[in-house]
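Example 3.2
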Amino acid sequence: MKHFYLIIFQLIGFFLFSQNQTFTLAELDSLTNQTDIKEKVSFVVFPECEIAQDKRKCFANKLQDFIVKNIGNNAKEFLNVKYGADTLVLYASLHYNKLGLKSLDYSKLRSSFSEFDKFLEPIKNTLPRVKPALNEDGNPISKNVNLSLGFIFDKNNNSLSPLYEYSLEEAFFQITENVPVHPNCNEDADNSSIKACMSYNIQSFISNNFNINVLKNVNLADGHYRVFMTFKIDENGNIIDAKARGPHKLIEEEAKRVVQLLPRFKPGMIRGKPVVVPYSVPIVFQVENKQGKKN
């Protein structure tokens, strides 16, 4: 008979604080590597990063250089007129197949200034081919690359320059941004500690409240399955816009039910003002046929 195991609960918090920036379910799905459960895989190799020891860092730096080199004057003029800040954050979610070619449908370049995104699409389309990621057996695999990239915009010279090794969390520390806080977590801790606490509490809550008996009502073959769960923590700390995509509608409904039971959070803050924060929670479970055992 069938036995069911919830084997992984991984929380990914997307701390892209923006009052007017939103992400669709498909975009949030693309932030999670959907092609490989194993962790021991190599990183994709951007051109000129072959001998770099840290392939991820080199990829980020070369991608920033590529964006700066290929951004048009019209885009910089647009920033000069429309953008009020001097720091621009880009989020890259790039999906590469086994040949090192990017998937245009599942690759995104987004910015902290949503009106600027239209200038990023041509750059995304012209990104070069990479050497694909390899699994632990040395075979090429598909892989997502997810990076936060920082840039400085000089209005006086109408120029865009990369902030190498940019960290979204460090930027928030510098301007005293605060991530959402689970009621079981210490709101006076630093952002990294709060996020770790958030992850633990949300994972535990889902694990304890997900009704695994729902899996018995659907006819799934043996194997691993994923439910891609997304939700937002609004300005009042409430869960909103819970969405799920999984192998069966009943499983999707159960995932949404559990997430909507999460307690009220202290909302994320930017410049002292509450903001909406999107999250993605991939739930992975295993269906295994155990003969001769009672369910």
